Every structure is written in structure tokens, then in C-alpha cells.
Model the fold of this input.
Amino acid sequence: MLQHRKILIIDDDVSLQKVLGIQLENGGYESSVAESGQRALELLAEGSYQPECILSDIKMPGLSGLDLLPLLKEQYPLVPVVMLTAHTDLETGLKAMRSGAYDYITKPVRRQTLFETIERALQYYDVEQENNKLKEENRRYQENLERNIEERTREVIDAYQALKDTNLAVVKVLAETIEAKDQYTRGHCNRVRMLSRELASHYNLSEQEIEVLEYGALLHDIGKIGIPEKLLNKCDILDKEEKAVFEDHTVIGEKILSIIEFFNPCLTIVRHHHERWDGSGYPDGLKGEEISLLSRIVQVCDSFDAMTSTRPYRGELPLDEALGELKKGRESQFDADIVDLFIAQKIYRCVL
Ligand SMILES: [Fe+2]
Done:
């Protein structure tokens, strides 16, 4: 619908202002006049008036049409500007179009040309407005989408962290259950966890592997639940039969934890924390690097903490003696590199 669409005429020629004004009013448009480029900029800057098409003369005192054009395009890029040129000056009209004018009309202005040009310019204006609206909607949609994704991601991370905290708390309770049964090992599992994590920080392990290591270290002795208490707390050295029962805690632990899928990655640590580097350990007699790195780390930390804690069959060893025992076990009981790292980096400090 063409009625009442706003056209701004910029022209210093009063008679042309009038002619154009009357023609536009008769054609159903609403026209306004600025007698100079400067005045047009002031009118637009007020903000209350927004033309949908601008007709601008080229030759005007002060700002010429060609000087005004870039200012209009910069501030009102969606409003089409139709230039008015002298009949003899087509080159200027083309130059104006190359500078961003929508079209040009030669003077004297023919009524039909005026209306046809304005109608096309208004259609262009409508399309540009619609495009701009869609772009804006799209931008807002993208912004919302990004915000929603960020929020959801944060929620998922928080939920995952809460779940991890709960898991760790449950596992600590489980570990303490073992310790309650074995009076000599209070705090042992958590210390093995801390030592293992400290040692692991010197290896290039992923966050996931460190998590597995921590759970495995906490739960390595969970199988002791299945071992008679009097055997766990026995002050004498175990006889062959008792030893076999005791050694079963590795396999029992693996069996208990295998019920819960979440613990599957920790099973090798639980099963193999009593294997030995030279192959003389239990339950599988694995050798060297057949034993996983995480299990080898737990072996060293478990042994160190066992040596520096009181056991039913002996008192605690002083630090230097415990470290001496670790050194003695290089390449027979333990992975020599891990022992060396444990001593060189003073890993034990995190539990002293
Ligand atoms: Fe054990």
C-alpha cells in the first residue's frame, strides 16, 4: 500500500520543492522538505522523523548531493536515496549510483517516472527492512542459543561434579568400612590415594586416568571385607593356608566391584596391587609392564604406607628405613622408575 509512505525531499529550489511536494501528496505519499543537506541531517538526527525514501538534489549550496550521499548511507543504510540530476548531466547520476544512490531521476521530473522510481525504491526499502528484521531475529536467536547452550553445559558440568563428589564420598565410606574391620589400617586407603595422586602428577596421565587411579587406590583392599577379622588382625606371621586366604582379598575385591559398572576401570588396580615386578606376586604372577602403570603406582604407595604404619605383626618403620626398603625392592618387587621418582620427588611428604 502506497498511502502515507514518507518521502523526504532535499532541494534548495523552492519551486521544485513545491512541484514535487504536490505531486507526491496527490500520489498518496506524505512528503517533507529540507532545503539543504545540512538541514536534512538535522531533521534526521532529531529521530522523530524517519523517511522511507529520500529524493535529493545534487547541486545545492553547502553540502552537495554527492557530499551528503555517503553521510546518509552511513547513518541510514536501509533508506534508498534517489538523486535528482540535470537532464544534461547523466554522468553525475551514474557516479551517484556508484556511490550508493538507489537510482537517479533527471530534471524536469516526469510524474510517471517519479512514481515508478519511488515505488521501486519503497519496495527495496521494504525488502531491506524485512532482511534487517530477519538478521536481527537470527542474531537474537543465535545469542539465546549460545546462552542456552552455555547454561545447559554449566548445569551438566555442575551435575557431573556433584555426582563425582557423591561417588567419591561413597567410595571413602566403603574404604573406611574395610579399615573399621582391620584396626591397623585406619586412614591407610585415603593415604594411598593421596600418595598415588601425587605420584601420578609426574606422569602424563589424563584427568580420567587420575580419577580411576584415585578410586582404585581407595578401594584396593575392599576384598578384605571377605577375609576373617582374626586373620586380618593376627599378630603372628600367617601360615601357608592363612596366607592363601589372605591373598584372596585381591580377587574378592575385583569380584565385589565388578558388580558396579562405574568401577570397571579400577578393577585391574584392585586385582593387581600385590603383583610384583619380578613376577613373584599374586594373584596372576604378572611381570614388569604386564602390570598396568596405575597398579604399579598403587603398589609402591600401598607398600610405603603399610611400612610407615603400625601392623599387627610389627611396629611402624621410620621414614628412612621405609625408603630403604623401597630401594631394596627396586626391580624385584617394584618398578624401579616409580620408586626412584617417589624418593626423588619426596612424594611421601603429602601424607606426613
Ligand atoms: Fe592389599
